[in-house]
Amino acid sequence: MNNNFIIVGRLTRDIDFKYTNNNKPVAKANIAVQNGKDDTSFIETTIFGKMAETTYIYCKKGDLIGVSGIIKNHNWEDKNGSKHYDYTFLANKVTFLQTKNERTKTESAKESNEDIFADFGNNIEIDLNDNDLLD
What we know:
It contains two helices and seven strands; from the N terminus they run ββββαββαβ. The chain is of the alpha+beta class.
């Protein structure tokens, strides 16, 4: 059974980026996903490797991105015996649907009738294993 997710939404802030203790790039993206007219979910997604670096460089607050990946659950018990449950959304593919630069091009293209979808896409993929999550 697969545990996959696919979301499309806008970045609520610029990408948080750092390197792990093992010098692996990791980025956190907070994405607003519209569920309906008056319902929005805010999903923090973790991105690793070259994909994390590229997303950090090219994507900014307000950009529209598509992300697919897996959901990892974390269950633990605190010192008082209370059980806690948490989920991490781990990206294995990020698609840049509309960056600020592309929004500017789109506005210009509307005025000049250019093909606004000429550069559509920019797919980046990465393989991820559990050892990358331990840093």
